[in-house]
# Entry
Amino acid sequence: MKAHDAMYIGGQWRPAAGRDTIAVVNPADEQVIGHVPAGTAEDVDAAVRAARDAFAGWAATPPAERAAKIAALRDVLVARKDEIAETVTAELGSPPPFSQMVHAGVPIAVAGSYAELAATYSFEAKVGNSTVLLEPVGVVGAITPWNYPLHQIVAKVAPALAAGCTVVLKPAEDTPLTAQLFAEAVEEAGIPAGVFNLVTGLGPVAGQALAEHEGVDLVSFTGSTAVGKQIGATAGAAVKRVALELGGKSANVILPSADLAKAVGAGIANVMANSGQTCSAWTRMLVHEDQYDEAVAIAATAVAKYSVGDRVGPLVNAKQQARVRGYIEKGIEEGARVVAGGPEVPLDTGYYVAPTVFADVTPDMTIAQEEIFGPVVSILKYADEAQALRIANGTVYGLAGAVWAADEAEAVAFARRMDTGQVDINGGRFNPLAPFGGYKQSGVGRELGAHGLSEYLQTKSLQF
Ligand code: NAP
Ligand code: MG
# Structure
């Protein structure tokens, strides 16, 4: 695992302005695997200047050439896929097969989709006597979390570059090695100096300096709702574009006609993936009262397959482990019934949490309202469809969800009434071109596909 003792700014690895560093820890064995510089406002300023200097040239580069550079970047990611997976496993702790398939595989697919979109997208449109030009917004400040370290970076950088924007990235302090590897890939792909810049550092220092910088035209943030609100307020005060990809508390609605075993099994798998550290995870399972006991029994059996340390990795750090265990204790305190797992630490070393299933969860409980971000599923009971819908829509979030029914049309009719940005029907698979983003407090703006690209464009209308 290579750690750079430098920032990637203006096409060069440059020493940081300050001397502070961040220790990168492997959450599976708690060993320090490297150090990266903790950037300051000075580093952010240098990076924003580099991005500003590169902007006019990159914006004027024909879309087909930008597309070719993004395709080259995708090719480097493909060539370095094993290294990406190993790095994510080392700093996030996710099991190697999941790192290969998802942490490395999905960003490759997304980078590929933007290579194609950049080449085919119409950056000009006719509306009556007007020609509408779709122009890049400018310098983007991207702030990303640790849960899908490369995906979150690529889901911002690829569309920004396709649009003709330049970028300064501040990745999560827990997963900076993946971000450094990405910067190496950018360099290897021959993307011009200053188009992409990396400043590693702490959120309240480097992250805040980036969000507040006058030279940044658009802030794209993924992470907690608390920080998202702050960034939204800062951007609002400066009349700056902002995209916020925040938390979720998504519902997995199993209608009575559904294949119960399949729906419950898929629901458990969905939450256990990435140790439950997925903003769109279906953490609330909604089951009809007549099928409730059967569903709970199926869930308890299904979760037993998720062995700790093998199929379920650790949480990213000790703080998240403590936070998730705190939620499990809170669930017990508020009267929910543990049918699998619990707050006890399952392994002596590593930040593991036992895969946990709660039954008898009511909609007002903390574990049914707040984002836990760990391998914890709550099973709730409904009497009829109207109540199922009230429960599904009854949180401040609206990021994702699932509906299961014997008849696809029945599931779709229910999905239409859900206040949420994405719904998987009977286990519909991930589509890297579909817009991803939240209703309500799950966020502002969309990522992926053409919708994700348009976030980085502004319109200019010419009348003839
Ligand atoms: P977070 O603090 O919101 O982290 C997200 C990113 O924002 C990181 O790069 C972080 O830097 C940075 N940041 C933190 N404070 C900032 C500030 N004042 N100004 C600018 N940037 C700032 O999230 P977290 O503490 O890692 O996780 C806490 C909870 O957030 C989780 O339990 C989960 O509920 C939620 N979460 C959601 C998502 C999602 O995909 N929606 C992802 C991660 C976490 P540092 O790395 O230095 O903190
Ligand atoms: Mg944080």
Observations:
- The longest strand covers residues 31-37.
- The first helix runs from residue 41 to 60.
